[in-house]
Structure formats: structure tokens, C-alpha cells
Amino acid sequence: MIVLKSKHEIHLMKEAGKVVAGCHEGLRTFIRPGITTMEIDAFVESFMRKYNMEPAQKGYKGYPYASCTSLNDVVCHGFPSDQVLQEGDIITVDMVALHKGLHADSAWSYAVGEVSPVAKKLLEVTEAALYKGIEVSVIGNQISDIGHAIQTYVEAEGLSVVRDYIGHGIGRQMHESPEVLHFGPPHRGARIKKGMAFTIEPMVNVGTYECTLDDDGWTARTADGQLSTQYEHTLVITENGPDIITAQN
């Protein structure tokens, strides 16, 4: 069941979204060659707690960290570790803030120093694909219009959209209805209505869209070992269009 959000719930989600966005803004300069992904995780947890918010991923279904740090060929849910970032790496940091019972969720990808032309294009296309999906997230459209817009754009750029991991409704639960696919035909699924809140979070690969799963049960990688990136926003649907509550300055 899709739960439409009240004004009060949206207010709390916006407060959480501002903290998530602020954390990502801070990571722009924090992420650099020579630091570890565990240091990134510590930065995320410290930032959230400074604003009296809980890192909602920590403990979620047994996940042990405040963030997911997905490096190079890792599609999503990468574990923070002592691995040191190298010049030319790309890394996605995914985080969820919990504020007075409400959630906000955003993943963002970062270039570590100077990156290859292939990596640069991947980053640019994936971020643009996110906004292609947001553009059609308006009252009266259907949920599958989002995925169709993303897939059409990405594949025209010669890249592929991951099928195994999708966007989702969000609010009092981290994951709610509806499911938001990033691929598929248009004009299917639930109608988009005022008060809906959900994430759009395309994961885009250089090669095949297929993924494998590490033995830890969390870390997803590209099946061919090529690069992957992800960009994600949480949005709330209003009469005036989608309100991106995790928008960065």
C-alpha cells in the first residue's frame, strides 16, 4: 500500500533530507586519494549524530555500517573497510538519515582525483539520468514512466541500467511502496499522486547490466568487472512538481 505523507511527516523528512544533503556536500572535499572507505563511514556517522539524527542503515537487517561505500565495480551496498582510495577511483556513498521516525535517503558518486574519460562520462550520464527520472515524476504520470525515461536516456549513451536494485517509497519505513524501477515500458504501475514520497536511484554500468553478489550477502558488483555509478534523491510529490528533499547546494 502506498502511504501518502502528511504535512508534518513531509516537514520531518525535509529536515532529514537537509542533513543528508549537507553530509554529501561535506564529502566533496573529504573524499580524496589516501583516505579509507572506513574513514568515509565515520564522517557520515559523525555528521548525522551532530544533528541528532540516526544513520538508519546501521543495523538495518544486520547491516553493520552507517553508510554504503561502493568502489569502482561495486554497484551498491559496498562495505566500508581499510581499503585506501587511489587516484582515478570512483566511489558511491549511500546514506539514510532517521529523524523523529521519518527517513531521507540519498546516494552520490564521487571522482577520486582525476578519473578516466570513461569514468567521467559514466558519472555525468548517471547523474543526468537521475534528473530525467525526476522530470517525469509529476501528478498524473505513472511510476513506470520514471524507469522508461531513465533507460531510454542511458542506453542512448551506450551504457546499461542495473535491473536488480531499484528505487522505493520512503517515509516511516526506509523501504515502502511503490517500487521504482529504472527500466521498462512507460504507462504502467501506480499513478503518481500528491503526497507520495519515493527515491529514484539509477545504477548505471559501463558494460553489462548484470550483477553478482559477494559472499557477505550485501556487496553487489558488475558481472564483467567494469565500472558502475549511482545517484539517488528522495522526493515528495507536490502540486507544483517533485520536491527534491535531498537537493544539495
UniProtKB/TrEMBL annotation:
Q: Which Gene3D superfamilies match?
A: Creatinase/methionine aminopeptidase superfamily
What's its catalytic activity? Release of N-terminal amino acids, preferentially methionine, from peptides and arylamides
Q: Which InterPro entries match?
A: Creatinase/aminopeptidase-like, Pept_M24, Pept_M24_MAP, Pept_M24A_MAP1
The record's EC number reads 3.4.11.18
Q: What class of enzyme is it?
A: hydrolase
What PROSITE patterns would the database entry show?
MAP_1
Q: Which HAMAP family match?
A: MetAP_1
**UniProt xrefs under NCBIfam families:** met_pdase_I
The entry's protein name is Methionine aminopeptidase
